[in-house]
């Protein structure tokens, strides 16, 4: 079950978190922190035994030892965006015209000043070595274990990952799959494209950190806070951002910083925040 009693969020909203960083209240002046490396990571995958596949593209920004990430729809990041970030200070990038740049810059800064360690609230959860499907399923179990919703509940899933849906089915949880790309799930279920239209009929929300970059996160957070619903985030995008909003609508986060599970066949680690397991 979620355990939010006594938890004080770092900020009351995403915009409030950005303001606190710009004001220097969470660490060094972001004007003094420069991005040394910027890059994109692209992948296409079709797990053995699965009928369909998917593609990912992620913007990565390196600040000292930290990498901040924001996923984008493949092919939508403009030419020159990566070069525009290199050598720029974090404060400038937090005001960049492109939302994915702003999110990746915030993630890099927070990863630098508040890394995923127990002192900052993180609980490491190992992922086994193995095939892409084995690691995907292990990651899905780590995420779904953060949900306290009882069997028979309906979960709104924003950002469809078939391994997550599979894990929900095994827990006896119903779900409404939503993704801007639409389509169908591995089991032929239609994928909704308007998450806001589905919120009222769902008991809990399970959402991708990618919602930070496409502007759909704040309505989910506000709905969860207003109605007292669980909002569990699985975060490659904004893995260091979302834990700072636990208690402000976010109930738990499974944070997965770069490099992600799909990049390597060896063992890995995700970091869980905000729920008693």
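^ Assign residues to that structure.
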């Amino acid at each position: 079950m979620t355990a939010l009693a006594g938890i004080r969020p770092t900020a009351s909203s995403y915009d409030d978190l950005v303001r606190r960083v710009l004001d220097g209240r969470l660490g060094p002046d972001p004007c003094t922190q420069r991005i040394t490396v910027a890059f994109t990571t692209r992948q296409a995958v079709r797990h053995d035994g699965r009928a369909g596949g998917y593609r990912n593209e992620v913007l990565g920004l390196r600040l000292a030892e930290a990498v901040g990430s924001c996923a984008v729809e493949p092919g939508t990041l403009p030419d020159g965006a990566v070069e525009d970030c290199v050598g720029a200070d974090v404060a400038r990038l937090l005001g960049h015209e492109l939302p994915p740049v702003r999110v990746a810059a915030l993630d890099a800064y927070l990863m630098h000043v508040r890394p995923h360690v127990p002192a900052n609230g993180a609980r490491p959860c190992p992922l086994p070595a193995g095939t892409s499907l084995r690691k995907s399923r292990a990651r899905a179990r780590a995420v779904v274990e953060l949900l306290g919703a009882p069997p028979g509940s309906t979960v709104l899933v924003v950002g469809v990952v078939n391994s997550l849906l599979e894990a929900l089915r095994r827990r006896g949880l119903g779900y409404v799959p939503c993704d801007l790309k639409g389509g169908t799930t591995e089991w032929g279920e239609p994928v909704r494209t308007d998450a806001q239209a589905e919120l009222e009929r769902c008991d809990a929300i399970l959402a991708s950190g990618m919602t930070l970059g496409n502007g759909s996160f704040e309505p989910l957070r506000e709905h969860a806070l207003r109605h007292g619903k669980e909002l569990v985030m699985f975060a490659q995008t904004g893995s260091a951002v979302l834990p700072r909003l636990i208690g402000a609508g976010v109930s738990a986060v499974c944070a997965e910083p770069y490099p992600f599970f799909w990049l390597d066949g060896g063992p890995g680690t995700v970091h869980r925040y905000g729920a008693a397991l």
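The chain has a mean pLDDT of 93.
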